[in-house]
Amino acid sequence: QVQLVDSGGGLVQPGGSLRLSCAASGFTFSIYDITWYRQAPGKERELVARITSRGGRTTYADSVRGRFTISRDNAKNTAYLQMNGLVPEDTAVYYCYVYNKWGQGTQVTVSS
Q: Which residues of 8-42 are buried (b: 16+ CB within 10 A; e: fewer)?
């Protein structure tokens, strides 16, 4: 069966860093684009970053460009979102989306 497991969230201080992971199983991971979304309380779901299947093209939301980096390791069936310089506005549940499937989400909280 198809499964995506999001992990790596937590509580960090402003200016801190986190690396989120999306571990996939049950399908051919390497041929699909990967997208990270986030949703904060009371707000619409927002596209954070996207990477093509071969890793040659990336897309970022204006709010995270220069601070976040999306990457993938197809040999490990895993995608990553490196988040640096975190600010309170980054607080949200982050979800991985691949092959028309969603991860369960991982909470990121940025607070003093």
A: bbeebeeeeebebbbbbeebebeebbbbbbbeeee
